[in-house]
Amino acid sequence: MVKSLTTADRFSPADIPSSGLAARIGSSAIRDLLALTERPDVLSLAGGMPSPASFPVDAIALAAATILDQEGPDALQYAPTEGFAPLRSWIAARHPVTADPDQVLITNGSQQALELAARVASGPGDAVVMSDPGYIGAIQAFRSAGVELVGIPGDRGGLRVDLLADRLAGGLRPRLVYVVANFDNPTGATLTAERRHELARLADRYGFVILDDDPYGQLRWAGEAPAPLATLTDRVVTLGTTSKVLSPGLRVGWAVGPRTLVRELAVVKQSADLHTSSLSQRIAHEVLTRPGFLEHHLDRLRDSYKRHGRALAEALRCHLGGRLTFEEPDGGMFIWGRLREGGDASVLLPMAVERGVAFVPGAAFQVGAGPDHRSWLRLSFATAEAADLGEAARRLARAVASMEADVLELGPG
Amino acid sequence: MVKSLTTADRFSPADIPSSGLAARIGSSAIRDLLALTERPDVLSLAGGMPSPASFPVDAIALAAATILDQEGPDALQYAPTEGFAPLRSWIAARHPVTADPDQVLITNGSQQALELAARVASGPGDAVVMSDPGYIGAIQAFRSAGVELVGIPGDRGGLRVDLLADRLAGGLRPRLVYVVANFDNPTGATLTAERRHELARLADRYGFVILDDDPYGQLRWAGEAPAPLATLTDRVVTLGTTSKVLSPGLRVGWAVGPRTLVRELAVVKQSADLHTSSLSQRIAHEVLTRPGFLEHHLDRLRDSYKRHGRALAEALRCHLGGRLTFEEPDGGMFIWGRLREGGDASVLLPMAVERGVAFVPGAAFQVGAGPDHRSWLRLSFATAEAADLGEAARRLARAVASMEADVLELGPG
Lengths: 413, 413
Prior knowledge:
homodimer, 4-stranded antiparallel β-sheet
């Protein structure tokens, strides 16, 4: 091969054509955070990554071997954009309301379903609503689609649907309302039953589609789950994923929704990447439908996350006391905690990393120009070993104490 | 679970918000074609699918088992958007000019790299050039990005760079020029050495980026390969894939290009789907780097495609004679043939399917308002069994004879 040139930036970067799309998406916060979590000396409560100890490695290895042995090349060929038919049927059958397989599109994790929905159901300049603070990946996907992103405050009961109703009455006409109705990221909040009914009523009245992103719904270990939004109105696209119940690395997620919209999602997915890995889809299907596997696996998973969640909550109460307020979770992967008056989690972060613990400061989840989240922090109890959560809380407490001492020292002037 | 509603389209489809993106992408030609090829009684020369007999199933099964055994959960966790580091290094090292791993982005097949590049390097209304006829997936990706797609005619020497030069002199200022420089889809043409030098010179002069999509370059069994475009100018993004050398179902492709642009591609990919399957990437890396595997595998692949290509060419000459003109290929997967004066491949297709053979009519590859391709057809020799290619040509000959008889019968009036 000729090695006469290098592909290095010989010409000026300013010289390279750019649509400005990457700049519009902006924040590489998730990537910077992933980098932080990779330092071996840091106990990370930052990543939204499921516990690697929970991955059914043996079942996945057995599934891969069985599929390649029995199906051979068929498992490795180009495949329909819509997804592997038996997996679509399985997802349709588990949907909380009657759904046909052709209402299911398989995607590369639910992130792709979210990004496709953002581009298909809404376009540049259209209003899209999400709760503030909100999921960073959703903020990026909506910025990428060029929509006008409208943040509506959320609280312990999820999106403040009453505030949304006010905005709608005032003339706001969103194409989409995005929610993580079960164990929201970052707040851990679950949308109350009453708010779900009201949101569904508003969708029917104002004609928007609810994008219900549900990666965490199956991780409930206490309390009663309110009715899924899809049971309350037809105007719902539900996003699901194997990332939190099997493995994120397989990149198998899905969207279930009205036929017309799912067909449009498939057209755009075809242009985006033809289809999702045939092998990943078959592995997911094989493992998920293995007799007795899923319920047993979910039981173990919930039990493990419950122990993690309770251990972190206990350790935070013990080591931080009134310095951090939070509600103990009933499921999901996150504790959303608030520092005392004046505390700034973005100031705290480098002090925490110095002491060997990481988290995500609230500012990273800011959607719009509403109230800021600087005093909040998102603590994930999913990834770290249970045995390390106590030490992580101790390190965090030392960092908070140090930050508060600094504030006192610098004083009010 | 509550089953009180159905997610069927109770409300009118006209009621569902839509950005019109799917309608803009339009043609579901690829999907309709894939459907045709699935009829068991049809010998398909339509699909652009590699030979399933060539997939290294055993090597892939061994790789999956080894990876899951040795790396366990690490192979199944969330991973960096840019891709699996050892695979990026391997790709950088094989690039025809010196490249660093950070100039490589791993994508879900090269289709995703193409779609990301379409959105990142160009935006709505920007001019993008490709040869006409051209790859359907590229047409869709560029329509999806909302660019002004400019078709420049191609011939047996690939894109007519002289015509591009005229258009540039006349004021055309494209952001991107897309080429499949080796064994183009659908024409099978390879861009001549002279045209490559001229295209590189024009890129440097007018400041556009060349998007060199290279799925077929390694499938050359005769003749000499001209110098890769990346050796002639820095303004090149080269797209590669494992789809034609290992397996399309893994969905592992890549882009190699200037750092700044690759960084922007990664930002948009993160929002699009976080990252490509960790397991697929590791499997591809494990198989590709297995000592002695790749060169041996490529030799067998080229030998097999040569036999297929020559068998189909011979059978077409034998059964169709002067009714179809084409050049015998030196590589790739396609024969691009032309019917006699007045022949229309879109009219021929249903008659051919009726007789048990399928192909893609030239009209499917139309890029712009230039000369139409109705008398052309794309015949893939890659997917069908070698033993079936003779029968496929016989069936095609019967369909052509029947079409020509119809034309005679209907007469000129």
